[in-house]
Amino acid sequence: MSKLYVLFEHAAGYGVFKVQEFEEIGMLLPQLEAAVHDLARFNSVVELVGFSPFKTAIAALESINAISEGVLPEDLLHFLDITVPKSKKKNKLTLGVSDPKLGAAITEALGIQCSHVGAVPEVIRGIRHHFHNLVKGFTQKSSAVAQLGLGHAYSRAKVKFNVHRVDNMIIQSIALLDQLDKDINTFSMRIREWYSYHFPELVKIVPENYTYARLAKFIKNRKELSEDSLEGLEEITMDSGKAQAILDASKSSMGMDISVVDLLNIEMFAGRVIALADYRNQLSEYLKTKMTDVAPNLAKLIGEQVGARLIAHAGSLTNLAKYPASTVQILGAEKALFRALKTRGNTPKYGLLFHSTFIGRAGAKNKGRISRYLANKCSIASRIDCFTEQPTQIFGEKLRQQVEDRLKFYETGDVPKKNIEVMKEAMEELEQETAHNKSEKKKKKKKHKLNETSESVGENGVDQTTNGNADEAEEPPKKKKKKNKQEVE
């Protein structure tokens, strides 16, 4: 005969249940499935042997963290050792568990045979459904409260955020920056077409989108332009020659006349485009500051925008740090890679790294070589940024210089420094910087303490003089009192 005991982990504690007639249940699994929803029938099959509640919420959290990793907690070990009887040769004992990793840990620690298949999952499902009725002094409401509290604590422990190094903001800001670029270009084309009906010569004089939108808002009706508006045109264009050309073109323009309502709409639309362009500049500045906080070395090596695009494409800075250099090299060129593999053609040399200045400066023969070298340095920089505790730009500067030296090597043949030497120099500079920062902090603390002491000395000096006078004033009467007492005696 074999006996079956089932371990059930609840948010309130551990429960061990004994299952009656194990052999029959194994044969009649469909009947057990029907008995799960009927409490009376389920009670005749499953019986509570022991229940060990958690003493505190912290203990519950520690236990669930250990169980989720397949580790046997000490309190569960003691509880099972006391509750579950030892198996004999005739009566073999099996403990049903939901997690096979936990079952292996129990078997290793206590020597109890564990199972997670067969009738065990169905029995656990029934226990979960009727748990508040099987344990005395337990209600469905209290069970739900315990589960909710432990669920929140467990999720909070698993999801940990570092506020100062959140790369989600970089991913969102670079995506928004790309979207703004597209929108500003589309709107600028629209305003050019719209305003060119009235003043077509302006496009040739001022081809820049932002300046064109500002001029369209400033000029409005070209017939109203005069010598007085020349200063305003010079402020916008930053060129007296262009301003004079606009004034001259407005007098002999081939454009059609336009109504006041249409001009008003063009002016409003131009204002929107200008506001979007200004916001785009603010967002790029924000991205620079975030990149210097989160990934300073990567930003210094390859630029803020290209670095941010790499992080966004990888999903996070940690994912980018885990990628090998060969993957970093072709990030953003996945379509071309799979097409080349399918057609057995040449694989792409670069993806997002193509937007960096180094590849643009390299010769046609050296583009592939410099992209491979740059990807190598990017993977090093991202790993330093991801796993360092003190963010610095020293390594980024050194890596950037290495890429510059490699470009020179391809052009002139000058042999660059070895990577080991460069990294040693970077480590020495980092040590010097940390020592300098510590000395500055100590100096600031000393100054602060000196200021505090000087203030307190000034206050104490006044107090001491007053206290001294008071003591002098108080002492003579005491002596007099003593003399008076002696005379009276």
TrEMBL record:
Residues 439-449, 478-489 have a biased composition (Basic residues). Keywords: Nucleus, Ribosome biogenesis. It is found in: Nucleus, Nucleolus. One of its GO terms (molecular function) is snoRNA binding. Residues 453-469 have a biased composition (Polar residues). Residues 429-489 are annotated as: Disordered. GO terms for cellular component: box C/D methylation guide snoRNP complex; small-subunit processome. Pfam families: Nop, NOP5NT. SMART domains: NOSIC (SM00931). PROSITE patterns: NOP. GO terms for biological process: ribosome biogenesis. Residues 429-438 have a biased composition (Basic and acidic residues). Gene3D superfamilies: 1.10.287.4070, Nop domain. Involved in the early to middle stages of 60S ribosomal subunit biogenesis. Required for the biogenesis of box C/D snoRNAs such U3, U8 and U14 snoRNAs. Part of the small subunit (SSU) processome, first precursor of the small eukaryotic ribosomal subunit. During the assembly of the SSU processome in the nucleolus, many ribosome biogenesis factors, an RNA chaperone and ribosomal proteins associate with the nascent pre-rRNA and work in concert to generate RNA folding, modifications, rearrangements and cleavage as well as targeted degradation of pre-ribosomal RNA by the RNA exosome. Belongs to the NOP5/NOP56 family. PANTHER family: NUCLEOLAR PROTEIN 5 NUCLEOLAR PROTEIN NOP5 NOP58, NUCLEOLAR PROTEIN 56. This is Nucleolar protein 56. It comes from Tribolium castaneum (Red flour beetle). The lineage of its organism: Eukaryota, Metazoa, Ecdysozoa, Arthropoda, Hexapoda. The gene is AUGUSTUS-3.0.2_12306.
